[in-house]
From TrEMBL:
Family (UniProt): Belongs to the bacterial solute-binding protein 1 family.
Annotated source species: Bifidobacterium callitrichidarum
Xref: Gene3D superfamilies: Periplasmic binding protein-like II
Name assigned to this protein: Sugar ABC transporter substrate-binding protein
GO biological process: transmembrane transport
Keywords on record: Signal, Transport
Signal peptide annotation: 1-19
PANTHER family for this protein: ARABINOSE-BINDING PROTEIN-RELATED (PTHR43649), BLR3389 PROTEIN (PTHR43649:SF14)
Amino acid sequence: MSRLSRALKIRTVMAAAVAVGLVGTAAGCGGTSGSGAANGNGVTEITLWTWQSTISDFVTAFEKTHPNIKVKVTNAGANEDEYMQLTNALNAGRGIPDLVYLDFNAVHQFAISDQLRSVNDYGFKSIRGDFTKAAQNNVTVNGQPYGLPISSGPMVMFYNQDVLAKAGVNEAPTTWDEYREAAEKIAAMPGSAHITNDTGDGGFISSMLWQAGAKPFSVDGTTVGVDFGGRNVKKFTGMWQSMLDSKLIDTSTTGWTDDWWRKLDDGSIATMLTGAWMVSSMQKNLTRTKGSWRVTTMPQYSTGEHANGENGGGALALPKGSDNAKAQAAYEFAEWFAHGDGVQVNLEQGGLPPLNSVLSDSDWLNEKDPFFGGQATHQVIAEASKDVTTDFEYLPYMAYANSIAVDSIGQVYHGKTTLQKALVQWGDALKTYGQQEGFTVK
């Protein structure tokens, strides 16, 4: 194995003692390389790692029509927690799952390290064109696809219509100038409401840069580029910094906390700029404001533009080192989930499969959602999906990049630096890391 392949195993984000402990955990719950494909009854058992809370619905439906395959699910933790366990299992050469859910940025990280199987080897080539161009791009590294896309996150703006109306904003903002005007009106109301919240999450900042047309990262094999000095980067940082300086954004409330959900539900936070997958979470966590929320496409920098980025989404991938004989069965489940009958299960749960057939289905498009006051939200989501540009690139160590974003970007929200300076600092750290990991950095 090359130095680059060895180095790209996220080893710098965990302490050695923790890593050793997690190897044991992973080994106890994953498939073991070299075990037989089928048991004495002709049933192949595959191990799937995912943090999806409703995965049992998919497994039950799949096993009813595929009695020769049994899916054993392990929750190895969400996002970086799962990636850390997967890294340690790969390093140890045991406990490697047959199938794993990865955020799109992590697909790139593990693929560039030569740790994933190309799904073209199992039949993906024949269905690849059925997925959106953005989804295809998100699982492709150096021309090869390394996962089956099962979820997508075109950015949209969720807004509390009642709060905006109370502030004198009768139409959802369509440009960032209008968004700022709305923010000023909301801030002028009695109380402590803000138009949105932001505490410096690296993933969110990357998505906002994507939507602004910025291309801070470039990848060409093992050569990477990091540049936060571009005009479109400054287009975003200038707009967002101005709002931060004017205290129009809640910088004290962290997303996904109880306090965050409370503020969304009592009107203290009026909009969310995030992936369209947020619909199902809102329905589960917001009760007082049911019927008040609406969704629209992202504000634009100029009237009439249609530019968008993604926030979230991911794929089912096949790690190398798992049982070769089980890989085809693992792919069979992944294809069923992403392209077969599992798509309907996904839709019933409020998921957003990145399939052209879904985004153009009239019944789906015209479905009205009572939570959003009877709005046909899918029409907005489909439009947002079509607006996603496909030339944004992830670093091959994006999961690591997001994990250290707080060291630089996080300081902006304590008034210690500006967003533009923080991005340059983040970029310098990412360049240094890339060089240490064996990349050619430009």
